[in-house]
Amino acid sequence: MAKQPMLKFISVSRDMPEKRLPNLRREDFNEIYAEYADEKAKEQSSRCSQCGVPYCQTHCPLHNNIPDWLRLTAEGRLKEAYEVSQATNTFPEICGRICPQDRLCEGNCVIEQSGHGTVTIGSVEKYITDTAWENGWVQPIKPHAERAESVGIIGAGPGGLAAADVLRRQGVQVTIYDRYDRAGGLLTYGIPGFKLEKDVVMRRNDQLAQGGVKFELNCDVGVDISFADIRAKHDAVIIATGVYKTREIQAPGVGGVGLERAIDFLTVSNRKSFGDTVAEFESGRLNAHGKKVVVIGGGDTAMDCVRTSIRQGATSVKCLYRRDRANMPGSQREVQNAEEEGVVFEWLSAPKGFVGDPVTGVMVQKMRLGAPDVSGRQAPEVIEGADYVEEADLVIMALGFEPEDLPTLWNTPELPVNRWGTIKADYITGATDLDGVYAVGDIVRGASLVVWAIKDGRDCAQAILEKIGASTAIAAE
C-alpha cells in the first residue's frame, strides 16, 4: 500500500520558506497544501457563529458579506462562496493576503472577543478566490453593450484598477495612465512578493486588459501628457495616484551614501523578482546582502523592509521605532512574523543623526512616552544622556508617505487640495470641485489601506455610472 502524506502533521503558512520542507518536491508541496488548505478552510469557516451582529462585516471597509461566504465554505459550496465574496470586492484574493485582518474583520470577530481565537477570515478569503481562478469560475469582463462615454484614470494602483473594473463591466471606455512599466502601483512594486505574489496581481491586470481596459504605461502625467489633455480626451477623469513622496528626516548626516528611501528599496527588490536587471541592486546600493541593516519606522512599510532585508541575506536587521510596541501603527502580526525571522526591534528609539559617508552607524536617542498629544496618543520624549550609536551599512527610512504637489506638477493650480496636499474630494463619490474630475484612495485619504482604495474606486465608479445614466448593480458579472 502506498504511503499517504501525513497531512495532519504539516502546518503550512504562506510565509514558510520551502527550505523547511527539504524532502518535498514542489509538486508534492502543492498537492499537500491544496488538500490541507481545503480541510483547514472548512474547519475555520465552520467556527463562524453566524452571530446576530456580524462585527467582522461592519468592520470591513467593503462590508463584505463574510458570514455568508464562511457558511458556504463550511458546506463545501466554494463556487457560491466565491460569488458572494467577489460581489462586494474587486480583488478578494489580494485583500485576503495583505489586509490587516487583525485590525479589521478578524480583530472584531465575536469568537476572538470571547477569547477562543479568531476565525481566520483572510486565509479563507484567499483560498476560495484562488480556488475560483484554478477552476475557471472567474469570468472575463464582457459588457452587455458598449457605451460611448470614456473615463481616464491616472494611476494603476488598487483604487484605479477597482474603478476600471466596475466601469468596464458596464461598457464604459476606460484608459489608465501610469508612470510605471507594469500596472498595479504598490501592489506590484511596493508590497513584497512573499506577502503578495506578483503573478496574482498580473493576473488581474491581464483580466482588465483582455476586458478592454487600455493601459498607457511609462506615461508620466505632467511630463509625457498634460492633465489638460487627459481631461479633453475623456468625459470624466479619476485621479488615483496614491502618495509616493517620502517623509524626510532632518538630522546630521542625511544625504550620505547608504541612506535610502523605503520605496526605492522595495521597488528594486520587486523588480528583481520579475527578473529585471536592476543596476542599483547589482551595484549593491539597494541590496541588503551581507550588510547590517537598520530600518527606521514602525508601519507596515517598515515591516516590509525588514523582512525583505532578511530574505536578501542581511547579516543583521534592526528596526528603530520611537514609541513602544503597543503604540506602533503597523500590524502586530507583521511584527511577530519579523521577530520570528530574526529581526530585532529597538523600541522607544529614534534617530538623532548618521555617522559616516558611506554610513557606518545611526546615532540613536532613547525615548520614553510622556503626556498624550492632541490626538490622545502618548508623545515620545527624549531621555537625556541615553544616546548610543547603532552600527549600520544600510539605513532604510520608512517614515511614511505624503502626496506630491500635483497642482504644480500638472500645471493645474485650480486642482483643489487641502493644507496636507491631498485632493479635496467627496468621500463617497470622489467628486472634486472641478467638473468631471474625481479622486480616490490615498491621494484623498492620505496613506491608508489597499482595501479603502478599492472601496473608493468602486464607489467613485458607481457615482460616474449614475451620472451618465448607466447605473446597475456594481457586482462583477
Notes on the structure:
Helix 8 (158-169) packs parallel to helix 18 (450-468). Helix content is 35%, strand content 16%. It has helices spanning 26-46, 55-58, 66-74, 78-86, 92-98, 110-113, 121-134, 158-169, 186-189, 198-210, 227-233, 262-273, 279-282, 300-312, 332-340, 406-409, 442-445, 450-468, and strands at residues 150-154, 173-177, 214-216, 236-239, 245-246, 259-261, 292-296, 316-321, 344-347, 349-355, 361-372, 378-382, 388-391, 394-397, 401-402, 437-439. With 477 residues, the protein is of the alpha/beta class.
Short description:
35% of the residues lie in helices and 16% in strands.
Beta content comes to: 15-25%
Total strands: 16
- Level of helix content? 25-40%
Largest sheet: 5 strands, parallel
Compute the average pLDDT.
Answer: 90
Distance between the termini: 47 Å
Physical arrangement of strands within the biggest beta sheet = 3-2-1-4-16
Parts with pLDDT < 50 across at least 5 consecutive residues: 1-32, 473-477
Summary tags:
5-stranded parallel sheet, globular, 477 residues, 16 strands, alpha/beta, 16% strand
Set out the fold topology.
Blueprint: H1 26-46, H2 55-58, H3 66-74, H4 78-86, H5 92-98, H6 110-113, H7 121-134, E1 150-154, H8 158-169, E2 173-177, H9 186-189, H10 198-210, E3 214-216, H11 227-233, E4 236-239, E5 245-246, E6 259-261, H12 262-273, H13 279-282, E7 292-296, H14 300-312, E8 316-321, H15 332-340, E9 344-347, E10 349-355, E11 361-372, E12 378-382, E13 388-391, E14 394-397, E15 401-402, H16 406-409, E16 437-439, H17 442-445, H18 450-468
Parallel strand pairs: 1-2, 1-4, 2-3, 4-16, 6-14, 7-8, 7-14, 8-9
Antiparallel strand pairs: 5-15, 10-11, 11-12, 11-13
Helix pairs in contact: 1-3, 1-7, 3-4, 4-7, 5-7, 8-18, 12-14, 14-15
